[in-house]
Amino acid sequence: MHEIFFYFLVALTALSSLSVVLGRNPVNGAMSMILALVGTAGLFAMLGSYMLAALQILVYAGAVMVLFVFIIMLIDIPATAAYRHHWGTLVAAILSTLTLGGGLTFLFLAPEFRQSMPDIAGAASNGSGLVFSSQAVAYGAGLMGKYMLLVQVIGILLLVAMVGVIVVSKDLRATNSGKSLPTPPSN
Amino acid sequence: MMLSHYLIVSGILFSIGFLGVLLRKNTLVVLMSLELMLNAVNLLFVAFSRYNLSLDGSIFVFFSITVAAAEVAVGLAIVVALFRLKQTVFVDAFNEMKN
User: Fold this and answer.
1) Residue B46: CA count within 13 A, CB half-sphere
2) Å between A57 CA and nearest CA of chain B
3) Backbone angles phi, psi at B3, to 5 degrees
4) pLDDT tens digits, residue range A48-77?
5) ipTM at complex level
């Protein structure tokens, strides 16, 4: 049962990821992306990280993908070729992807990775590391304890990103008191 | 399931995202493929965290998701700004820094 569910989630995630990458319509791509993210959330749940699975669906499939769909609908994309049509680029892309995928698969088939997952119940503190737990309280303790500084740094990062988005998306030409920015050379 | 199952799935997802970044012309799809790659690495983090029974990797995924959300916000703002400038979102059009 466990295995069937695992392979179902893997097939869902991989096929919808392929649909994102190869599909021609960006809106369909965004919908497939949501499926891929939900499939990954299922894999997180199978690994025992229920908190991360919930967060993945809330933040990724919820907020981020809504933003994507919104921008895709905002931008009216003309129907032209979706892929790069230069043959060198095409061949290089496929070859490097095959090399990367094959290399990673070969690497991860090494005997030291062919271990079954240990039992969560047997988790004991070993040194300074936090102990794995499915409960949300463990994440809270880790975030507010050991990683407090990182949480604050991430807060500053989000603030900077917010200010950056406002600056970038502001139409400078409109507010420049009638003067327009120099138009870029058309090539 | 064994650890290597999850690792191989993560590697395949990363490769698919990589293919999308190299292959596609639409900047929005390129950004989505980047998200796929980040997502694959998150899966790797969680798998190793579960295998080693250590929560640090799982907590790192929090930060990874946050950085990805910030990256999407800034990236999409840049795409919209470029669209305003060029009336297109295809990567071939954005070659200001070439010369």
Assistant:
1) 33
2) 11
3) -60, -40
4) 899 999 999 999 999 999 999 999 888 877
5) 0.92
In a domain? residue A118: no
Tokens of A48: 């025992």
Domain with A67 in it: what CATH number?
1.20.120.1200
* A contact residues 147-176, partner B, Cβ 8 Å cutoff: 147, 150, 154, 157-158, 161-162, 164-165, 168-169, 171
Is A25 within the bounds of a domain? Answer: yes
Question: What is the tens place of the pLDDT at every residue in B18-71?
Answer: 999 998 888 999 999 999 999 999 999 999 999 988 899 999 999 999 999 999
Domain end, chosen from A76, A99, A126, is at A76
User: Is residue A165, in this structure, part of any structural domain at all?
Assistant: yes
Q: Going from the N-terminus, what domains does chain B have, and what CATH number goes with each? A: 3-93 (1.10.287.3510)
B92 min Cα distance to partner chain A (Å): 9
> Among partner residues A104, A114, A142, which is closest to B55 by beta-carbon distance?
A142
- Residue A3, token pair as written in the block: 């295995």
Residue A43 lies in a domain: yes
Range of the domain at A27: 1-76
Q: CB–CB of A169/B81 below 8 Å?
A: yes
Question: Domain ends where: A76, A95, A126?
Answer: A76
Residue with the two structure tokens 């990775």: A113
Rounded distance, CA A66 to CA A61, Å?
Answer: 8
Number of domains into which chain A is organized = 2
Do A72 and A141 belong together in one domain?
no
DSSP B55: S
| pLDDT band per the 50, 70, 90 thresholds, residue A176 | low
CA dist B16 and A21 (Å) reads 7
Q: Are B25 and B90 in contact (CB under 8 A)?
A: yes
